[in-house]
Design goal:
Blueprint: H1 3-34, H2 42-63, H3 75-89, H4 98-114
Length: 115
Amino acid sequence: MDSRLIAWRQDITAGAIASIISLPVCVASGVLAFAPLGPNYAAMGAAAGLCGAIVAGAVSALVATSSFITTSPRVSESLLLASLIIALSNNPAVANDKHLIVVAVFLCVALGGLW
């Protein structure tokens, strides 16, 4: 096989393994970040953590130059998102629209990932 194809397969495998290993922490971090919105949003937080693990593993597999580079979730980032959700919840303009808060948090994470 071509050496580039072998390296690409190794990178994909490393990204998949990193995603699988980080799944429990990602799901817990998502639930922690969405906790200020109430228990009805716990499932949405778990889904966000799951999507984050999958996307982070895929991006690291495609962008990384070595199969030894992995991504890992951090609880501190979840606490920052929870703080953002609390701050937005205290704002009277958006306090009643929790879906708008979820969209704002998603946009903050997406823009942070792009930058």
